[in-house]
Specification:
Structural class: alpha/beta
GO biological process, one term: phosphorelay signal transduction system
CATH superfamily: Response regulator
Shape: globular
Distance between the termini: 19 Å
Keywords: Phosphoprotein
Largest sheet: 5 strands, parallel
Protein name: Response regulator
């Protein structure tokens, strides 16, 4: 089962993503800021990290740069509803951000994209009634 770390300072967004990916059979952890995410990486080795861009403290691009150093094999997705993403973060390393997804997202498209990014090898776990 693939593991996903979701990082977003908006509780509703983080909860929606957690429900979506758990329903699809992924193991999911949530962090509400960059520092909390880095702490989770000590014990949780994700296959994929989805981070919001605009968060208080460390922004998503900065977080994903640190994730690249700590968990280099993890796919790193930046999620944002802001078109000015790169102009507002000129130091963001293109290498640190594997992929960009715009808010609002379409659930089916997001799940499909994540499965593709993970190589399609992470099928959902069997559901229990």
């Amino acid at each position: 089962m693939a593991k996903i770390l979701i990082v977003d300072d908006e509780v509703q967004v983080a909860s929606a993503l957690r429900r979506l990916f758990r329903r699809e059979g992924f193991a999911v952890e949530v962090a509400f800021n960059g520092e909390e995410a880095l702490q989770k990486l000590v014990t949780f080795d994700p296959d994929l990290v989805i981070s919001d861009f605009r968060m208080k403290g460390m922004n998503g691009a900065e977080l994903l740069e640190r994730v690249l150093r700590v968990a280099p094999r993890a796919v790193r997705i930046l999620l944002s509803g802001h078109a000015d993403l790169w102009s507002s973060s000129p130091t963001a390393s293109a290498q640190a951000v594997s992929h960009f997804i715009s808010k609002p997202w379409d659930d089916d498209h997001l799940v499909s994209r994540v499965r593709t990014l993970l190589g399609g090898s992470h099928e959902p776990s069997p559901s229990t009634p």
